[in-house]
Amino acid sequence: MMKILAPISSIAEVDPLIEAGADEFYCGVLPPVWKKSYTNVASPNRREWSVSNLKSYDELNRLVERAHRHSVPVFLTMNAFYSQPQFEAVLKQLELARQARVDALIVADLGLLLILQKDWEGVFEIHISTGGTTFNSETAKFYQSLGAKRVVLPRTVTMTVINTIREKVPDLDLELFILNRGCKNIDGFCTFHHGVNEILRRGSWNIPKGWHVDYYFLEVMRRLPLSLARPLARCGLFGAIGACFLNYRAELIPETEGGVEAERKRRIERKLEDNFDVLSGIDPCGAGRYEELAEAGIRSLKIIGRSNPRSKKIRDVKFLKAVEGAYEQGLRGKDLQRRVQELYRKIYGTACLNLCYYP
Question: What DSSP line would sit under 58-75, residue for residue?
């Protein structure tokens, strides 16, 4: 049975998420001392908004203790790529994570991996972040040789690649994204900076972010007809929370003049442009491939969204738990897919829009 890995950013979320059906948690910590030295943009865990993170390792300690009462493991994200001056602070965080008794570290930096292999062997279970860009079985074997127990595969992998990795590296746990935040970029190669508004606008930006205004805005947008939502998303009225959501213009070179080719060229340009605006933040879903993922031997299904409101996190877990129940009852093929769509509409109150992971 595949595990449901839920995001968590508050101790108060532990009990309701477990009650909803969460099997595992992952979280990040953005301590004040790190934020003061490097700012939130250089977060130690690639989630730059303060609202996405725990504020201290003392808070992490209490969260882990509560989760462990229910035998639910907690994984700590330390999956940024660090500069040499940052490693002293990174090592201090490793010790604090050990004291908190976290069950695994989610890692991307090769330097940190080598340190963990040399000086911290057996202290933490090692999971390779999607930032580690595991596109094939050779990369998976490489990370396994450095002590990795689990690899989080990028959003761009196909079912063929997933099955090949499983076949060639059978004793390595595989984890996949299943809900939310369908980014068009490859995490391990992306150099866009996020969280800049938290610095430019200081405390004032934390108020709407803490109230999840961006999430609720997208919830309204996804219910509008596309003919209305698309121009509204590109009008620039609402600004952008990151470079991913800027209204880029795309132009194919060399240009083709006139006729069908010119029309095809413009269609391609529009499709590229549509990947970069506010609407690209609308959440996709991979639950329609649940049967294939289960048969591929996926260990864990990861829900993205540490900054999401608690109600959204609970709905996400309940949805996946219901899909798991339908699969365990024996539904397969199109019957299971129809049931997934029914559950989506029932739990979220809207159609899935066919925004699919692993289409």
Answer: HHHHHHHHHHHHTT--EE
- The verdict on residue 336 lying in a domain is yes
- Considering the domain architecture, whether residues 206 and 172 belong to the same structural domain is answered as no
Q: Where is pLDDT greater, at 87 or 265?
A: 87
Q: What is the mean pLDDT of residues 238-252?
A: 75
**pLDDT tens track for 42-68:** 889 988 888 889 999 999 999 999 999
pLDDT tens across 309-330, in order?
A: 999 999 999 999 999 999 999 9
How many degrees, rounded to 5, is the angle at CA 293 between CA 289 and CA 296?
Answer: 145
Least confident interval from 18-22, 61-65, 262-266: 262-266
Burial of 177 (0-12, 13-18, 19+ CB in 10 A): buried
- Give the domain extent around 264: 196-279
Q: Which residue from 87, 78, 92 is spatially nearest to 44, judged by alpha carbons?
A: 78
325's CB contacts (< 8 A; 6+ apart) are: none
Of all residues in the chain, what percent are helix, strand and coil, respectively (each to 5)? Answer: 50, 10, 35
- At residue 285, φ and ψ (nearest 5 deg) are -150, 140
What number is the average pLDDT over the span 123-137? Answer: 96
Tokens of 299: 């260990």
Is residue 354 included in any domain, yes or no?
Answer: no
Domain end residue (candidates: 219, 246, 279): 279
Task: Kindly write down the DSSP assignment for every residue of 132-161, as one continuous string.
Answer: G---SHHHHHHHHHTTEEEEE--TT--HHH
User: Phi/psi of residue 300, each to 5°?
Assistant: -145, 140
Q: What is the DSSP secondary structure assignment for residue 2, as one 8-state letter?
A: -
